[in-house]
Design brief:
Blueprint: H1 2-12, H2 22-28, E1 33-36, E2 43-45, H3 52-62, E3 79-84, E4 93-97, E5 107-115, E6 118-132, E7 140-148, E8 151-160, E9 163-173, E10 176-180, E11 189-190
Antiparallel strand pairs: 1-6, 2-3, 3-4, 4-5, 5-6, 6-7, 7-8, 8-9, 9-10, 9-11
Length: 191
């Protein structure tokens, strides 16, 4: 029975676009996750109920240049997102979804952090993510996205000095997992 509950929990936290093979499910599973974008319902924001600087930063992302009543395109009236402490400082960052950039790889997120009393964009990533506790350090951010029917990318990040630092990168393709080498350089820091 415990095994069945564990399988159901993993499947519930797996995005709808995952193909469901046992190998794929195992690749996408995240242990010790306390937050994920698959099962946690986002908060609905508008540009006006976000902090003014955050709302101004999000305007270019949500204002659709194709906004035209005749075309059927329009600027969304809301932004889905989360407030979560990503760097372990006790203050929440904003993780906001940009609906017009979402696709088969998953949702597109903009990560904003208040650094020295000013909001800054610290990353933009597409897919789904989990947060896992990691001792006294900032949480481990496991991001995964889909590149095709049997192709997935899984990356682990940690927020460090106001930026995301890439710690690990793996690809799942046709049942084979490939570990990518991540060197400790400035180029593996998402800005």
């Amino acid at each position: 029975m415990k095994w069945l509950i564990a399988v159901i929990m993993v499947l519930c936290a797996t995005p709808a676009w995952a193909n469901g093979t046992p190998e794929c499910t195992a690749f996408l599973a995240v242990s010790n996750s306390y937050f994920d974008t698959v099962t946690v319902k986002p908060t609905r924001y508008t540009v006006t109920n976000l902090p003014p600087q955050v709302g101004a930063m999000m305007r270019p992302y949500i204002e659709n240049p194709e906004t035209d009543p005749a075309s059927g395109h329009r600027t969304p009236e809301h932004i889905n997102g989360f407030q979560i402490d990503l760097n372990g400082d006790g203050n929440n960052e904003y993780v906001l979804e940009v609906q017009r950039f979402r696709g088969t790889s998953g949702r597109f997120y903009v990560f904003l952090s208040e650094i020295k009393s000013e909001w800054k964009e610290v990353a933009t990533l597409q897919g789904a993510f989990h947060l896992s506790a990691s001792g006294n350090m900032a949480p481990l951010i496991t991001f995964y996205s889909r590149g095709g029917p049997e192709t997935y990318l899984r990356q682990e990040y940690r927020m460090n000095d106001g930026r995301f630092e890439l710690l690990r990168s793996q690809r799942f393709r046709d049942g084979i997992i490939t570990e990518e080498i991540v060197e400790k350089t400035e180029t593996n820091r998402v800005e």
